Amino acid sequence: MVACGLILLAIGALRSRQIWTERPEHLGGRGGWYVLLAVPLLLGVIVPAQPLDGALLAVRGADLTTPRVAQASTFRAPAQGDTTKWNLLEWTMTLSLQPEQAEGKPVDVLGFVFHDPNLGQDGFYVARYVVTCCSADGTGVGLPVVWAGGQGLPENGWVRVRGTLGETQIDGRGEPAILASAVEPAEQPRNPYLYP
At what angle do helices 2-21 and 31-46 cross, to 10 degrees? Predict the structure, then answer.
């Protein structure tokens, strides 16, 4: 992506050199348009990209435990094995397709904190985005976490959550949740997205 931006900058620099070295009558009043076209390009190179976070989840009102991506027929639940190696996408797929296989299993996941008022004082969501093509098609996946002090965690801060899969009450319904034994601050991964 950076390489693409640099190539476009080089093309723009060459073209602007041609614009400013030509005689004014050849520009035909287009010089301002070229400058206007250069502004978004410069902003794209100068301003760093920010990954999707909880702000988008709040706007969409996403149901993190039953994401659209987990219901697609092309996605399968992860193979049996060490559930502490599963990511949030694998957990939500398993809970959507074979919930009986997940109950009571150990959990060790990495994600960002998303506070939902429906979870109460001792809860938050650990979430990530699943991206198929680009961030525009990002779908949030996550699990509620039951942990004393959950409301004290910073919104969008990255955490590593360890515990077991159990159940919590959300809007009067029993929902799968991580019963956390440890929640530790973590660095945002180099690539914050998950891919199916």
Answer: 160
Which residues form the domain of 103?
Answer: 54-194
Do 76 and 152 lie in a common domain?
A: yes
pTM: 0.69
- Write the CB contacts of 145 (distance below 8 Å, at least 6 apart in sequence): 123, 124, 125, 126, 161, 163, 177, 178, 180, 183
**How many whole angstroms separate alpha carbon 99 and alpha carbon 147?**
22
Number of domains in the chain: 2
Q: Are the C-beta atoms of residues 53 and 156 closer than 8 Å to each other?
A: yes
Residue-wise pLDDT tens digits, 27-42 = 566 667 777 777 877 8
Q: How far, in Å, CA of 81 to CA of 124, rounded?
A: 27
Containing 126, the helix (H) or strand (E) segment is strand 123-130
3-state secondary structure of 143: strand
